[in-house]
Amino acid sequence: MIRIYTEIEQGKEWIAQHRGCPPLFACVLGFTETGLIPGISAAGRTSEDRKFTAVADAEFLYYGAEHKPKYPLPPLSAGASPVLISRAVVEALHIPVYFFNAGLPYPPNIPVIDLGGASAKCLSHGNALKLSTVEHLLEVGLLWGERLAAKVQGSYVVLGECVVGGTTTALAILLGLGINAAGKVNSSHPVCNHTQKLAVVQAGLEKMKERWGGKALGRFRESTPSPHLPISPSHVDPLQLVAAVGDPMQISTAAMAIALSRSCGVLLAGGTQMLAVYALMKAITMTYALPWRSQQVVVGTTRWVAEDPTGSTVELAQLINCSGSPVPLLATELTFSNSRYPQLQAYEQGFVKEGMGAGGAVIAAHLYQNWQQNQLLSAIETQIERML
User: Fold this and answer.
1) pLDDT over 70 for what percent of the chain?
2) How far, in Å, CA of 254 to CA of 285, rounded?
3) With 80 as the cut, is the pLDDT of residue 122 above it?
4) pLDDT band at 62 (very low <50, low <70, confident <90, very high)
5) Across the chain, what does the average pLDDT equal?
6) Cα-Cα-Cα-Cα dihedral sign, residues 42, 44, 50, 56
7) Rounded distance, CA 383 to CA 366, Å?
8) pLDDT tens profile 250-296
9) Which residues, 6 or more positions from 297, have their beta carbon under 8 angstroms from its beta carbon?
Protein backbone atom coordinates (compact mmCIF):
# COMPACT_ATOMS: atom_id res chain seq x y z
CA MET A 1 0.00 0.00 0.00
CA ILE A 2 2.98 2.36 0.47
CA ARG A 3 5.72 2.77 -2.12
CA ILE A 4 9.01 4.52 -1.31
CA TYR A 5 10.47 6.40 -4.29
CA THR A 6 13.56 8.12 -2.84
CA GLU A 7 15.87 7.43 0.13
CA ILE A 8 14.47 3.90 0.43
CA GLU A 9 16.33 2.76 3.57
CA GLN A 10 15.52 5.97 5.45
CA GLY A 11 11.90 5.63 4.33
CA LYS A 12 11.71 2.03 5.56
CA GLU A 13 13.09 3.08 8.95
CA TRP A 14 10.51 5.88 9.26
CA ILE A 15 7.67 3.49 8.38
CA ALA A 16 8.88 0.82 10.83
CA GLN A 17 9.22 3.41 13.60
CA HIS A 18 5.67 4.72 13.17
CA ARG A 19 3.70 1.59 12.28
CA GLY A 20 0.79 1.14 14.68
CA CYS A 21 1.21 4.64 16.18
CA PRO A 22 -1.94 6.81 16.48
CA PRO A 23 -1.34 9.90 14.33
CA LEU A 24 -2.56 13.46 14.69
CA PHE A 25 -3.72 15.35 11.58
CA ALA A 26 -3.08 19.09 11.17
CA CYS A 27 -4.20 21.08 8.15
CA VAL A 28 -2.71 24.48 7.32
CA LEU A 29 -5.00 26.67 5.23
CA GLY A 30 -3.77 29.59 3.17
CA PHE A 31 -4.52 31.69 0.12
CA THR A 32 -2.63 33.36 -2.69
CA GLU A 33 -4.16 35.60 -5.35
CA THR A 34 -1.97 33.63 -7.77
CA GLY A 35 -4.78 31.05 -7.62
CA LEU A 36 -7.17 33.56 -9.24
CA ILE A 37 -5.22 33.75 -12.52
CA PRO A 38 -7.51 32.25 -15.20
CA GLY A 39 -6.52 28.65 -15.92
CA ILE A 40 -3.74 28.46 -13.30
CA SER A 41 -5.61 25.89 -11.17
CA ALA A 42 -8.45 23.39 -11.57
CA ALA A 43 -9.30 23.41 -7.83
CA GLY A 44 -12.56 25.26 -8.51
CA ARG A 45 -14.11 25.90 -11.92
CA THR A 46 -13.85 29.70 -11.85
CA SER A 47 -11.64 32.27 -10.11
CA GLU A 48 -14.60 33.14 -7.88
CA ASP A 49 -15.06 29.46 -6.91
CA ARG A 50 -11.38 29.19 -6.02
CA LYS A 51 -11.65 31.94 -3.39
CA PHE A 52 -13.71 29.49 -1.33
CA THR A 53 -11.94 26.16 -1.98
CA ALA A 54 -9.89 26.13 1.24
CA VAL A 55 -12.74 27.14 3.58
CA ALA A 56 -15.13 24.70 1.86
CA ASP A 57 -12.68 21.79 2.08
CA ALA A 58 -11.97 22.57 5.73
CA GLU A 59 -15.66 22.66 6.57
CA PHE A 60 -16.20 19.28 4.86
CA LEU A 61 -13.21 17.72 6.61
CA TYR A 62 -14.51 18.91 9.97
CA TYR A 63 -18.23 18.12 9.66
CA GLY A 64 -18.55 15.54 6.89
CA ALA A 65 -21.20 15.08 4.20
CA GLU A 66 -24.39 15.31 6.32
CA HIS A 67 -23.71 18.87 7.50
CA LYS A 68 -25.35 21.72 5.56
CA PRO A 69 -22.27 23.81 4.76
CA LYS A 70 -21.90 27.56 4.86
CA TYR A 71 -19.30 27.06 2.13
CA PRO A 72 -20.26 24.16 -0.21
CA LEU A 73 -17.48 22.31 -2.03
CA PRO A 74 -16.75 24.27 -5.24
CA PRO A 75 -17.67 22.70 -8.59
CA LEU A 76 -14.76 21.11 -10.45
CA SER A 77 -14.42 20.55 -14.18
CA ALA A 78 -13.96 16.83 -13.35
CA GLY A 79 -13.47 14.64 -10.29
CA ALA A 80 -14.28 15.14 -6.63
CA SER A 81 -12.37 17.09 -3.98
CA PRO A 82 -9.54 15.12 -2.34
CA VAL A 83 -11.05 16.14 1.01
CA LEU A 84 -13.38 13.13 0.58
CA ILE A 85 -10.33 10.88 0.98
CA SER A 86 -9.01 12.70 4.05
CA ARG A 87 -12.48 12.82 5.66
CA ALA A 88 -13.03 9.08 5.10
CA VAL A 89 -9.81 8.29 7.01
CA VAL A 90 -10.02 10.74 9.93
CA GLU A 91 -13.71 9.92 10.52
CA ALA A 92 -13.35 6.13 10.46
CA LEU A 93 -10.13 6.03 12.51
CA HIS A 94 -11.09 8.86 14.91
CA ILE A 95 -7.90 10.78 14.17
CA PRO A 96 -7.85 14.19 15.89
CA VAL A 97 -7.68 17.11 13.44
CA TYR A 98 -6.34 20.62 14.04
CA PHE A 99 -6.97 23.43 11.55
CA PHE A 100 -4.68 26.44 11.18
CA ASN A 101 -5.57 29.64 9.34
CA ALA A 102 -2.25 30.90 7.98
CA GLY A 103 -3.92 33.58 5.85
CA LEU A 104 -7.38 33.31 4.28
CA PRO A 105 -9.67 35.91 2.68
CA TYR A 106 -12.69 34.43 4.54
CA PRO A 107 -12.73 32.86 8.02
CA PRO A 108 -13.59 29.13 7.91
CA ASN A 109 -16.91 28.09 9.45
CA ILE A 110 -15.19 25.66 11.88
CA PRO A 111 -13.05 25.83 15.03
CA VAL A 112 -9.69 27.02 13.72
CA ILE A 113 -6.42 28.28 15.20
CA ASP A 114 -5.64 31.67 13.70
CA LEU A 115 -1.90 32.12 13.15
CA GLY A 116 -2.23 35.86 12.51
CA GLY A 117 -1.04 35.66 8.92
CA ALA A 118 -2.44 37.19 5.75
CA SER A 119 -3.47 36.12 2.25
CA ALA A 120 -0.67 36.48 -0.29
CA LYS A 121 -0.85 38.77 -3.29
CA CYS A 122 -0.16 37.30 -6.71
CA LEU A 123 3.49 36.22 -6.78
CA SER A 124 4.03 37.87 -10.18
CA HIS A 125 4.44 41.23 -8.40
CA GLY A 126 7.41 39.93 -6.37
CA ASN A 127 5.79 41.33 -3.24
CA ALA A 128 3.44 38.55 -2.07
CA LEU A 129 3.61 39.04 1.71
CA LYS A 130 5.05 41.56 4.16
CA LEU A 131 8.38 40.36 5.55
CA SER A 132 7.03 41.06 9.06
CA THR A 133 4.14 38.65 8.37
CA VAL A 134 6.54 35.92 7.23
CA GLU A 135 8.73 36.43 10.32
CA HIS A 136 5.64 36.27 12.54
CA LEU A 137 4.42 33.04 10.89
CA LEU A 138 7.85 31.48 11.40
CA GLU A 139 7.75 32.25 15.12
CA VAL A 140 4.14 31.19 15.70
CA GLY A 141 4.65 28.07 13.52
CA LEU A 142 7.61 26.97 15.65
CA LEU A 143 5.48 27.51 18.77
CA TRP A 144 2.56 25.44 17.44
CA GLY A 145 4.95 22.71 16.29
CA GLU A 146 6.11 22.36 19.90
CA ARG A 147 2.50 22.31 21.14
CA LEU A 148 1.43 19.62 18.68
CA ALA A 149 4.52 17.54 19.47
CA ALA A 150 3.50 17.53 23.13
CA LYS A 151 0.13 16.02 22.14
CA VAL A 152 1.49 13.09 20.13
CA GLN A 153 4.10 11.79 22.60
CA GLY A 154 6.65 10.45 20.13
CA SER A 155 4.15 9.34 17.47
CA TYR A 156 3.80 11.51 14.34
CA VAL A 157 1.83 14.40 12.87
CA VAL A 158 0.37 14.38 9.36
CA LEU A 159 0.71 17.96 8.07
CA GLY A 160 -1.70 18.68 5.22
CA GLU A 161 -2.47 21.91 3.37
CA CYS A 162 -4.97 23.69 1.19
CA VAL A 163 -3.75 26.56 -0.98
CA VAL A 164 -5.24 27.00 -4.44
CA GLY A 165 -2.43 28.01 -6.79
CA GLY A 166 0.05 26.48 -4.35
CA THR A 167 1.98 24.44 -6.90
CA THR A 168 2.85 27.71 -8.63
CA THR A 169 4.11 29.36 -5.42
CA ALA A 170 5.96 26.06 -4.78
CA LEU A 171 7.69 26.40 -8.16
CA ALA A 172 8.68 29.97 -7.24
CA ILE A 173 10.22 28.89 -3.91
CA LEU A 174 12.07 25.97 -5.49
CA LEU A 175 13.52 28.08 -8.34
CA GLY A 176 14.38 30.85 -5.87
CA LEU A 177 16.33 28.34 -3.79
CA GLY A 178 18.27 27.30 -6.88
CA ILE A 179 16.47 23.99 -7.51
CA ASN A 180 15.78 23.50 -11.20
CA ALA A 181 12.10 22.63 -10.78
CA ALA A 182 10.87 24.03 -14.11
CA GLY A 183 8.74 21.41 -15.87
CA LYS A 184 8.81 19.09 -12.85
CA VAL A 185 5.96 20.32 -10.62
CA ASN A 186 2.40 18.97 -10.60
CA SER A 187 -0.98 20.63 -10.95
CA SER A 188 -4.67 19.86 -10.55
CA HIS A 189 -4.95 19.80 -14.38
CA PRO A 190 -4.65 16.47 -16.22
CA VAL A 191 -1.76 17.99 -18.22
CA CYS A 192 0.33 20.37 -16.13
CA ASN A 193 0.36 24.00 -17.33
CA HIS A 194 4.15 24.34 -17.00
CA THR A 195 4.54 27.25 -19.45
CA GLN A 196 1.92 29.37 -17.70
CA LYS A 197 3.35 28.65 -14.24
CA LEU A 198 6.93 29.41 -15.27
CA ALA A 199 5.99 32.73 -16.88
CA VAL A 200 4.22 33.89 -13.70
CA VAL A 201 7.11 32.74 -11.50
CA GLN A 202 9.86 34.31 -13.62
CA ALA A 203 8.00 37.63 -13.55
CA GLY A 204 7.86 37.46 -9.73
CA LEU A 205 11.51 36.49 -9.31
CA GLU A 206 12.61 39.30 -11.64
CA LYS A 207 10.58 41.81 -9.59
CA MET A 208 12.18 40.41 -6.42
CA LYS A 209 15.64 41.01 -7.88
CA GLU A 210 14.69 44.58 -8.84
CA ARG A 211 13.26 45.27 -5.40
CA TRP A 212 16.00 43.78 -3.23
CA GLY A 213 19.01 44.23 -5.49
CA GLY A 214 22.47 42.91 -4.63
CA LYS A 215 23.13 45.37 -1.81
CA ALA A 216 19.83 45.27 0.05
CA LEU A 217 20.17 41.71 1.27
CA GLY A 218 22.90 40.46 3.53
CA ARG A 219 22.60 36.96 2.11
CA PHE A 220 21.46 37.86 -1.40
CA ARG A 221 23.81 38.47 -4.31
CA GLU A 222 23.21 38.60 -8.02
CA SER A 223 24.45 35.64 -10.01
CA THR A 224 24.76 35.00 -13.71
CA PRO A 225 21.16 34.08 -14.44
CA SER A 226 20.35 30.91 -16.35
CA PRO A 227 16.86 30.69 -17.90
CA HIS A 228 15.33 28.83 -14.95
CA LEU A 229 17.61 29.81 -12.07
CA PRO A 230 17.19 33.56 -11.66
CA ILE A 231 18.91 33.71 -8.27
CA SER A 232 22.03 32.24 -6.72
CA PRO A 233 20.74 29.73 -4.14
CA SER A 234 23.43 30.15 -1.51
CA HIS A 235 22.69 33.83 -1.01
CA VAL A 236 18.90 33.99 -0.78
CA ASP A 237 17.34 34.71 2.56
CA PRO A 238 14.49 32.13 2.64
CA LEU A 239 12.14 34.45 4.57
CA GLN A 240 12.61 37.22 2.01
CA LEU A 241 12.03 34.70 -0.75
CA VAL A 242 8.68 33.67 0.81
CA ALA A 243 7.77 37.34 1.27
CA ALA A 244 8.47 37.98 -2.41
CA VAL A 245 6.94 34.96 -4.16
CA GLY A 246 5.54 32.54 -1.56
CA ASP A 247 2.31 31.91 0.31
CA PRO A 248 1.47 31.88 4.05
CA MET A 249 1.02 28.09 4.26
CA GLN A 250 4.61 27.40 3.21
CA ILE A 251 6.34 29.27 6.02
CA SER A 252 3.81 28.17 8.67
CA THR A 253 4.09 24.49 7.73
CA ALA A 254 7.88 24.62 7.44
CA ALA A 255 8.15 26.15 10.91
CA MET A 256 5.76 23.62 12.47
CA ALA A 257 7.59 20.72 10.85
CA ILE A 258 11.00 21.98 12.03
CA ALA A 259 9.78 22.13 15.64
CA LEU A 260 7.90 18.81 15.39
CA SER A 261 10.95 16.99 14.01
CA ARG A 262 12.86 17.64 17.23
CA SER A 263 10.67 15.20 19.18
CA CYS A 264 8.31 13.26 16.87
CA GLY A 265 7.73 12.09 13.33
CA VAL A 266 6.46 14.39 10.56
CA LEU A 267 4.57 13.30 7.46
CA LEU A 268 4.41 16.26 5.08
CA ALA A 269 1.21 15.32 3.28
CA GLY A 270 1.37 16.57 -0.30
CA GLY A 271 3.40 16.48 -3.50
CA THR A 272 5.07 19.47 -5.12
CA GLN A 273 3.95 21.85 -2.36
CA MET A 274 5.39 19.73 0.45
CA LEU A 275 8.65 19.15 -1.43
CA ALA A 276 8.92 22.95 -1.62
CA VAL A 277 8.14 23.17 2.13
CA TYR A 278 10.92 20.65 2.79
CA ALA A 279 13.40 22.62 0.65
CA LEU A 280 12.35 25.72 2.60
CA MET A 281 12.92 23.90 5.92
CA LYS A 282 16.47 23.06 4.83
CA ALA A 283 17.14 26.69 3.85
CA ILE A 284 15.64 28.14 7.05
CA THR A 285 17.48 25.78 9.40
CA MET A 286 20.75 26.49 7.61
CA THR A 287 20.31 30.27 7.35
CA TYR A 288 19.08 30.77 10.92
CA ALA A 289 20.95 27.87 12.59
CA LEU A 290 17.72 26.30 13.89
CA PRO A 291 17.99 22.78 15.32
CA TRP A 292 15.92 20.04 13.65
CA ARG A 293 16.08 16.32 12.93
CA SER A 294 15.69 15.85 9.19
CA GLN A 295 15.53 12.04 9.48
CA GLN A 296 12.19 12.40 11.33
CA VAL A 297 10.54 13.90 8.23
CA VAL A 298 9.05 12.23 5.15
CA VAL A 299 6.95 13.58 2.28
CA GLY A 300 3.86 11.46 1.56
CA THR A 301 1.52 11.84 -1.40
CA THR A 302 -0.69 9.90 -3.80
CA ARG A 303 0.36 7.66 -6.69
CA TRP A 304 -1.40 10.13 -9.02
CA VAL A 305 1.18 12.77 -8.04
CA ALA A 306 4.25 10.54 -7.71
CA GLU A 307 3.63 8.98 -11.12
CA ASP A 308 2.09 11.98 -12.89
CA PRO A 309 3.40 11.67 -16.48
CA THR A 310 3.10 15.45 -16.97
CA GLY A 311 5.36 16.27 -13.97
CA SER A 312 8.56 14.77 -12.52
CA THR A 313 7.91 14.49 -8.79
CA VAL A 314 10.52 11.80 -8.11
CA GLU A 315 13.20 13.71 -10.01
CA LEU A 316 12.22 16.86 -8.10
CA ALA A 317 12.66 15.04 -4.78
CA GLN A 318 16.07 13.78 -5.94
CA LEU A 319 17.16 17.33 -6.86
CA ILE A 320 16.14 18.59 -3.40
CA ASN A 321 18.03 15.69 -1.82
CA CYS A 322 21.27 16.50 -3.69
CA SER A 323 22.40 19.08 -1.14
CA GLY A 324 22.28 16.96 2.05
CA SER A 325 19.44 16.23 4.54
CA PRO A 326 17.62 14.02 2.01
CA VAL A 327 13.91 13.27 2.42
CA PRO A 328 12.11 10.02 1.55
CA LEU A 329 9.23 10.46 -0.91
CA LEU A 330 6.41 8.02 -0.15
CA ALA A 331 3.12 7.49 -1.94
CA THR A 332 0.01 5.44 -1.31
CA GLU A 333 -0.78 2.94 -4.06
CA LEU A 334 -4.52 3.61 -3.71
CA THR A 335 -6.35 3.25 -7.02
CA PHE A 336 -9.83 4.30 -8.14
CA SER A 337 -9.76 2.32 -11.39
CA ASN A 338 -12.47 -0.05 -10.13
CA SER A 339 -14.61 2.60 -8.40
CA ARG A 340 -18.26 2.77 -9.40
CA TYR A 341 -18.18 6.59 -9.25
CA PRO A 342 -16.96 8.64 -12.25
CA GLN A 343 -15.92 11.41 -9.78
CA LEU A 344 -13.27 9.02 -8.40
CA GLN A 345 -12.37 7.41 -11.74
CA ALA A 346 -11.41 10.94 -12.88
CA TYR A 347 -8.31 10.65 -10.65
CA GLU A 348 -7.08 7.86 -12.93
CA GLN A 349 -7.40 10.26 -15.89
CA GLY A 350 -5.14 12.80 -14.17
CA PHE A 351 -7.70 15.15 -12.64
CA VAL A 352 -7.36 16.49 -9.04
CA LYS A 353 -4.58 14.07 -7.87
CA GLU A 354 -4.01 15.38 -4.29
CA GLY A 355 -4.90 18.00 -1.67
CA MET A 356 -6.04 18.43 1.94
CA GLY A 357 -3.41 15.88 3.02
CA ALA A 358 -5.24 13.08 1.15
CA GLY A 359 -2.16 10.99 0.33
CA GLY A 360 -0.78 11.37 3.84
CA ALA A 361 -4.13 10.41 5.37
CA VAL A 362 -4.19 7.18 3.34
CA ILE A 363 -0.60 6.37 4.32
CA ALA A 364 -1.57 6.96 7.96
CA ALA A 365 -4.60 4.64 7.65
CA HIS A 366 -2.33 1.87 6.39
CA LEU A 367 0.33 2.45 9.07
CA TYR A 368 -2.12 2.84 11.97
CA GLN A 369 -4.76 0.17 11.21
CA ASN A 370 -3.25 -1.67 8.24
CA TRP A 371 -6.06 -0.52 5.95
CA GLN A 372 -5.92 -2.03 2.47
CA GLN A 373 -7.29 -0.98 -0.91
CA ASN A 374 -10.80 -2.44 -0.38
CA GLN A 375 -11.32 -0.74 3.03
CA LEU A 376 -10.12 2.60 1.71
CA LEU A 377 -12.24 2.51 -1.43
CA SER A 378 -15.32 1.51 0.56
CA ALA A 379 -14.85 4.33 3.09
CA ILE A 380 -14.24 6.93 0.36
CA GLU A 381 -17.22 5.78 -1.73
CA THR A 382 -19.39 6.02 1.39
CA GLN A 383 -18.50 9.71 1.57
CA ILE A 384 -19.67 10.21 -2.02
CA GLU A 385 -22.88 8.28 -1.37
CA ARG A 386 -23.70 10.52 1.56
CA MET A 387 -22.90 13.63 -0.42
CA LEU A 388 -25.16 12.59 -3.31
Assistant:
1) 94
2) 10
3) yes
4) very high
5) 93
6) negative
7) 19
8) 999 999 999 999 999 999 999 999 999 999 999 999 999 999 999 99
9) 257, 261, 265, 266, 268, 278, 281, 327
Q: Does residue 230 carry a pLDDT above 60?
A: no
Torsion angle of C-alpha atoms 137, 143, 148, 151, degrees rounded to 10? -160
Cβ atoms < 10 Å from Cβ of 98: 18
Whole-angstrom Cα distance, residue 354 to residue 338?
19
Please name which of 268, 246, 270, 201 lies closest in space to residue 40, comparing C-alpha atoms.
201
Contact 181, 174 (CB under 8 A): yes
CA angle 20, 26, 32 (to 5 degrees): 145
Contact 60, 73 (CB under 8 A): yes
Measured between alpha carbons, how far is residue 253 from residues 234, 246, 264 in Å? 22, 12, 15
Measured N-to-C along each axis, helices 53-63 and 83-92 cross at an angle, to the nearest 10 degrees, of 20
Backbone phi and psi for residue 79, each to the nearest 5 degrees, phi listed first: 85, 180
Do 220 and 240 touch, CB atoms closer than 8 A? Answer: yes
